[in-house]
Amino acid sequence: MRVTLFVPCFIDSLYPNVGMSMVHVLERLGHTVEFPEEQTCCGQPPFNSGYWEEARTVASKQLDVFHKAEVIISGSGSCGAMFKVFYPELFHGHAREAEAKALSAKTWEFSEFLVTKLGITDVGARFEGRATFHDGCHGLRELGTKLAPRELLRHVQGLELVEMTEAETCCGFGGTFAVKYPQISTAMAEVKCNSICETKADYVISNDSSCLMQIGGWLDRNVGSVKCLHLAEVLASR
Amino acid sequence: MTTHAGLPRHQFQQDANLTANDGPRREAVRKALGNYQTARNRTGATFTDWKSARNAAATIKHEALNHLDRYLEEFEQKFTARGGKVFWASDSKQARDYILKLAKEKGVRSIVKSKAMTGEEIHLNEALLEEGYGVVESDLGEYIQQLKGEPPYHFVFPCMHLRRDEISDLFHRELGTAQTNSPEELTMIARRVLRRAYVEADMGISGANFIVADTGMISITENEGNARLTVGLPKIHVALIGIEKMVPRLGDLALFLPMLATAGTGQHLTGYNSMYGGPRQPGETDGPEEFHVVFLDNHRTRLLADPEQRDALHCIRCGACLNVCPIFKNIGGHTYGTTYQGPIGSVITPHFRGLQDWKHLSGASSLCGACTETCPVGIDIHHHLLHNRRNAAAQKPASGEGLLWKAFVFLMKRPALYRLATKFAPLGGLLQPLLEHVPFNPLHNWTETREFPQAPLRSFRDQFRAHQAAKTSQAKGGAR
Fold it and tell me: Has residue A120 got a pLDDT over 60?
């Protein structure tokens, strides 16, 4: 299958390995991966801040870029939800509504694409360690992704997966929320990270790098020993 | 905690600074709400199908609000036929004035009140006390908050933030009772005060959980029996009710009473569920001689006129969205500075009290959606926070922020420029240690409490391009 990657701006700059890991996993499964270089940001930051006109302008650019894609795969549940759930609302009653809906229909979060669309739960990965999984809120509640990443991780050889009590609790990132209300955001990170540490895991894995930036940022400052990994990085290991 | 001068958004930030850093209180609240969650999961599981029950509840509330005018009139007709009186209050002042005038006309001296958030909303107690009436809150949690001189912390669990020893201290200070650590003894202290208040009061004031149109009755749900005594003993009763509390039929309560109990407290049913249809009828031996229902609009019709957010009026005030909200758990109820705390409060307060003054509550959310997921009547709570943000920005862009997003659009519309910007990302990380002590460091709000990742030298797009080039040359090599 020809698959088109949507690599959100912060993954592009800060976590390129996440994108490359997705490329490796998909290519090993025999798919042709393409990455349109004209893509920029999904527009979620202005959208979440209430600046929908500005968000529409940025989103319009992505409608152009991904117009010809067969399937679009996002390595972030949050940016994926922007394409899949919020574009139709953002363009509701606007000229490009139909295009937004079409883009929504062909967008997949990475783990859902593997498990639900392709029916693959074992990608032949091997990774030694004890890990816990963090559900990113947009992936979990906007896209309904809960089991797919766990199915994939269960089949990773050498990986011990332990659930934390606060798996579904928000990490406190929330985009601009993290810097507009840093005191609340940090308190939320603390609750999340305490729950991660309770599991005695060596790794916290998620399907959303934005959450991991928050979790990793707090852990690195306060704990140091627990490492953050994107699901794709684990699945690409052998 | 609510004594700050200044704008609500400044008060919010200041209080959040204190409460988000109060580790022990946060832990206690989280633990209490963890117990709630366990109980709720247990009772929720006894519904054959919670999801269908939720859809049914949303459908019934939709129907009730869609024809609210008709159902309110139906209620009025049935209720007044039994001798009840209905007053329509457009705003807080009208509601307060009606109740004050009634108290004056009837020569009322003391008043007992059961839990009513509408009373908080219109600042009824303050108005009554100012006119010299004694008012005693009869719900234990509300009584404690009244003694403490604080508004409720949570609209279902008013004093959930207080420890037992703090309540004992409060009783010792205000009532002169001996210190105790026993919840039973603390309850008995309050009970002795409250029993006297019921007998002495010549007016009772309550709210209601539901208005039932087809029987012309109100339904009150509680656990302490205090509302029954508040309605039953004094000569005059006033129920102050938001007009949105409507259900069309008595039979609807078969769904709503267990649903409210489950979502609100994790109970199958609350301890007492009472229906009141008017004053004491001929031949009856008890009940108030006069029964007034004050219907409160106070901008509810303004929300009703908004097709996008009118489902916020479905709210049955179960408090479930507060109980699961990670913001509420970390900043507590008083920080909001509103009558209705938590996610639903952040949605409706801008409608009730002004968007520009209260838009910050919609901003103070990570939009995690736990509220929407848990809401028993299916209100799209966290998306309404987005809608409030949109409406606020469209009405009046925040100074500076509008410009920032214009610059953002300028960059994101130009892939070449964007690519250039990503080239400089690693530089940001290298400069970060130098910026650490600069007062205008744009990353300060992040780096004060968290590390910021160092951007690798090669972005994804650079690595992908190299990867594709390697594949192409490999393919060529293979062909050769």
Answer: yes
Looking at chain A, which residue has its C-alpha nearest residue B423?
A13
- Among A47, A50, A57, select the one facing B392 at the smallest CB separation: A50
Confidence of residue B427 (pLDDT cuts 50, 70, 90): confident
B461 touches chain A (CB under 8 A): yes
The two beta strands, B246-247 and A2-6, are unpaired
Mean pLDDT of B56-80: 98
In chain A, list all ranges with CATH 3.40.50.11810.
122-235
Q: Which CATH class name applies to A2-116? A: alpha beta
CATH of domain A122-235: 3.40.50.11810
- Per-residue pLDDT at B143: 98
**B1: pLDDT strictly greater than 50:** no
- In chain B, which among 426-455 make CB contacts under 8 A with chain A? 445-446, 448-453, 455
| Nearest-CA distance A162 → chain B (Å) | 20
| Per-chain mean pLDDT for chain B | 94
- ipTM, interface predicted TM-score of the complex: 0.96
Distances (CA, A) of B435 to B37, B383, B427, B431: 44, 36, 12, 6
B469 interface with A at CB cutoff 8 Å: no
Using a CB-CB distance cutoff of 8 angstroms, which residues of chain A are in contact with residue B419? 37
Residue A8 is encoded by which pair of tokens?
């959100």
Q: How far is CA A156 from the centre of its chain?
A: 19
> Is residue A175 scored above 50 in pLDDT?
yes
Q: Which of A9, A174, A182 sits opposite B367 (nearest CB)?
A: A174
Question: How many CB pairs lie under 8 A apart between chains A and B?
Answer: 193
Report the relative pairing of strands B272-276 and B217-222 from DSSP bridges: antiparallel
- The reply to whether the predicted model has a pTM over 0.90 is yes
Other beta carbons within 10 Å of A68: 10
Please name each of the domains of chain B with its CATH number. Answer: 1-46+319-395 (no CATH), 61-298 (3.40.50.10420), 401-479 (no CATH)
